[in-house]
Amino acid sequence: MSRRRNLLRVAIILVVFVTLSGLAIALWAQHAILTVSEPVMYRDATPVPGRPVAIVFGAKAWSSGPSSVLKDRLDAGIRLYRLGTVKKLLLSGDHGRHEYGEVNTMRRYALERGVEDVDIFLDHAGFRTYDTLYRARDVFGLRSAVLVTSEFHLPRALYTGKRLGLDVVGLVSDARTYRSWLWNDCREFLARTLAWVQVNVTRPMPRHLGPAIDITGDGRATHDE
Hints:
It is a single chain. It contains 6 helices and 8 strands. By secondary structure, the chain is of the alpha/beta class. Helix 3 links the parallel strand 5 and strand 6. 47% of the residues lie in helices and 14% in strands. The radius of gyration is 20 Å and the shape is elongated. Strands 1-8-7-2-5-6 form a 6-stranded parallel sheet, sandwiched between helices. The chain has one domain: HUPs (Rossmann fold, 3-Layer(aba) Sandwich). Helix 1 crosses helix 5 and helix 5 packs parallel to helix 6. The mean pLDDT is 90.
């Protein structure tokens, strides 16, 4: 009985230690990500410093068009393009299934608002933030960019980009309060922790890489419709 009690005590101590260690890493990740990202986050497009490309991150797309979150991200990216802050748009999203493709919805929306087809590049394998930025560097050859996404997501995107060696600034795309804001904030706490581990410890390969694509060329080479 005494031995069993001692084993139980050791098990409890280990669980507490692992839990506290995980919480410490999570809290440090939040601090590190916000410290790095906040100085280069913009909430208005006008003062954003010029970069060759804006990377617009995908979000839910419906058969009728982009969701409100995705629409706001696209509008912010298009605003940068119209201002001349960027020359190209890299639209990155989930196109892992034939019947679902965020990037084609994004392209159609940008075309309808006057963006030249040659200036629209599609990243069909932007399944997660890490993949998008890794591919932006290694497939599209980017060294600097404006990242365009929602406020809850932008700090993690900026931190990931910087840790991957990119010179990035960010534009907050939020044009309204979204119904899912509480869920997004809670999920992001975990996502930031994972991002910190990815870029500082594990450094995984993205799900897909592929041949190099010249971002200064014709974006139509990346289109599939």
